[in-house]
Specification:
The protein is α+β, with helices and mostly antiparallel strands. It has a domain of 85 residues: Immunoglobulin-like, CATH 2.60.40.10. 22% of the residues lie in helices and 25% in strands. The chain has four helices and eleven strands. Strands 3, 4, 5, 6, 7, 8 and 9 form a seven-stranded antiparallel sheet that branches. Strands 1-2 form a two-stranded antiparallel sheet. Strands 10-11 form a two-stranded antiparallel ribbon. The N and C termini lie far apart (131 Å).
């Protein structure tokens, strides 16, 4: 058989030319996501070569939903998932394909959508807001005065802006950012809870263990998993307790009217303010009576 002509390489019996086909899939790394909202979350990741972006997600590893395929070839990927159910554990995996259609799929990842409630309760599901008992989200501090007259207890309401370093988001394993750094500083102030005292801004295994010790110490959660009982993650009840214990320094302790968060809270605040005004009137009348 004659040799084919115009080939560039000699590999044994025949010359050969042409480029080697790309059969290597992209390498996916650095998967992360922002603090999940009630109905949306943004997930990011990187690849070692330009590739497409897509996410499979759902409440189980069957991944019953998929985001729109973004065919733009990039190395830094960002996809926002919308239409989530609040206070729900989601499973997801990211997918990227290079220009030669080699596809990589990540291992299973998880996140919890935000419940929308910071105060009260443990890790259970949220019900209708109409059936809730209204609660004051802002802390109430009681101050006392001493005199020859009966002791009067006056509620003093502080604006959230006056509480320094307070946490505002629920946090989970894999989170990173300023909120996590603030959490680590809180926990590190107690060596029995966070003896490693590493302030990295990343919610890793050490931070998770420290949160578990905090939950045990203050009888919030006694065990289980983050997905089922909230053990090891900063859920609504843990968030409230962290701010109560480590919530920062109160400045300018004068009577302050706190901006309402709902009509129900406004009504309760108005009721408390009216009670204080009435007590002041009664106190003034009692002082006048004693002076006479």
């Amino acid at each position: 058989m004659p040799r084919p002509q115009s080939f560039l390489y000699d590999i044994g019996a025949y010359e050969f030319s042409g480029s080697v086909a790309d059969i290597t899939a992209p390498i996916i790394s650095a998967i992360s996501f922002n603090t999940p909202g009630q109905t949306a979350v943004t997930i990011t990741w990187t690849t070692d070569e330009p590739a497409t972006s897509q996410i499979n997600y759902g409440t189980t590893t069957a991944y019953n939903s998929t985001t729109t395929h973004n065919a733009t070839l990039v190395t830094s990927h960002s996809v926002t998932i919308t239409g989530l159910i609040a206070n729900t554990l989601y499973n997801f995996r990211v997918r990227s394909s290079d220009g030669s259609a080699n596809t990589s799929v990540s291992s299973n990842q998880t996140f919890n959508s935000f419940s929308g409630v910071f105060n009260g309760g443990g890790g259970g599901g949220s019900g209708s807001s109409k059936s809730r008992t209204p609660k004051i989200v802002s802390p109430i501090f009681l101050s006392t005065t001493t005199s020859s007259l009966p002791q009067v207890i006056t509620p003093v309401l502080f604006s959230p802006a006056r509480i320094h370093n307070a946490l505002t988001s629920q946090l989970f394993l894999g989170f990173k950012g300023v909120e996590v750094e603030r959490l680590q500083k809180m926990l590190a102030s107690d060596p029995t809870i966070y003896p490693e005292a590493k302030i990295t801004g990343f919610y890793g295994v050490l931070t998770k263990k420290a949160v578990e010790r905090f939950q045990l110490k203050y009888s919030i959660v006694s065990g289980g998993t983050p997905e089922v009982t909230g053990f090891g993650q900063v859920g609504p009840k843990t968030l409230v307790k962290l701010n109560q214990i480590y919530g920062g320094v109160i400045t300018n302790p004068s009577l302050t009217y706190t901006a309402p968060r709902s009509p129900e809270e406004q009504a309760l605040i108005d009721h408390l303010v009216a009670m204080v005004a009435k007590l002041k009137e009664e106190l003034t009348a009692l002082q006048i009576k004693n002076n006479n």
